[in-house]
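FAQ: What does a ligand-bound record look like?

Like this one, built around guanine:
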Amino acid sequence: MTIYRGTFLDTPDNPFTGGTLRVDADAGLLVRDGVILARGAFGDVRRAHPAEDIVDLSGGLVLPGFVDTHVHFPQIRAVGGLGLPLLEWLDRYALPEEARMADVGYAAGVAAEFVRGLAAAGTTSALVFGAHYADAVDVLFSAASEVGLRITSGLVVSDRLLREDLLTTPVRAYTESLALAQRWHGVGRNRYAVTPRFSLSCTDDLLAACRRVLDEVPGSLFTSHVNENEAEIATVADLFGGSDYVSTYDKHGLVDRRSVLAHNVHPTDVDLKVLGETGAAVAHCPTSNAALGSGLFPLSRHLQYGVRVALGSDVGAGTGFSLLKEGLQAYFCQQLIGDQGFSLNSAHLLYLATAAGADALGLPEVGDLSVGKRFDAQLLRPADGSPLAVGVEHADDAEEALARIFTLGTSADVHAVWIDGELLHR
Ligand code: GUN
Ligand code: ZN
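The answer part, i.e. the structure of the complex:
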């Protein structure tokens, strides 16, 4: 057993429904086999367990590991393709790079960079958009297993309106998806996600095949994109006889508590009602929404309809792996949206980056650092004299220190990361 000594910040109680930031200065967390067995003032935990090893994390702040609910593994080398809206950006930047995943050696190199980037950003769990090629998804799961990340991913499928080399058929999509799920779902920390790219690029037959895979893989998730860009939404309405976007998935039984839909920048009230009633979650991807000019996310309307919301980096339309940056951009977005904006404080941002993500991904064992949870955590320790170190040192209280972390922090300030109490990154 190990006692971690430090200052711990987390959000076990949802700040959108009255919870506040939990702050425990000089606390002790007793961890055995990756699980937090006791938590209290360091002195008390030490007295009760005098013989255990101590890992001293003083001089920094310990947060739960981040949960990234939407990130594309084959797009890391496409980050920074600025200046285009979604459909043009896909054609110009994202899809040519995704086509390179046909070469499994190339995909393996990208997968290694991808898992390192996530871990370095303090992200311990992620719902990852895979590749259109089964072998590339296979190397992603292998790379994630080596590092030990908690990954949910799957084969991305499409059968129309993308470049030819990325298309599949409903039969092949079903067979390849099921084979990958049988190989990886529930193995180590890996889980499978059924992943049609978006209904723009998927026929009803393909979405029906996705539903069959979801049914045949208990505990799998469903993920896709929704209501991101006006031109995309108009095309989807044309293709599906004027339907609201969420219903293009819902009519196939793909929208429920297992579902995580990315973006939802321009939902109708009917879309929000269905998402709220079914318990589906939305991955809010604020830097991507700004970079592609997709729009300002209507958070207040999501909250009104009881829709679960968490954060996604959406690399490569998003601008990097750090959920600190996504939190700050989420805050900016609400400031800019006008009367409808929800004023986010630092507890909201931490919740969106941690516990909300764990909830969206169906991972009740992570998201905060309570007794009974797994020790998935990160130590933020900025370099001495850096603007963040100065800001944290002179903060009046922990909420203010946390706001400064979201404002000034980057992956460079993440000093160490643990999953199940195993040290990943230093
Ligand atoms: N919609 C369909 N594919 C994509 C993608 O790769 N990125 C984003 N942001 N939206 C999408
Ligand atoms: Zn995306």
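Follow-up question: can I read anything off the structure? Yes, for example: Residues 215 and 420 are 29 Å apart (CA to CA).
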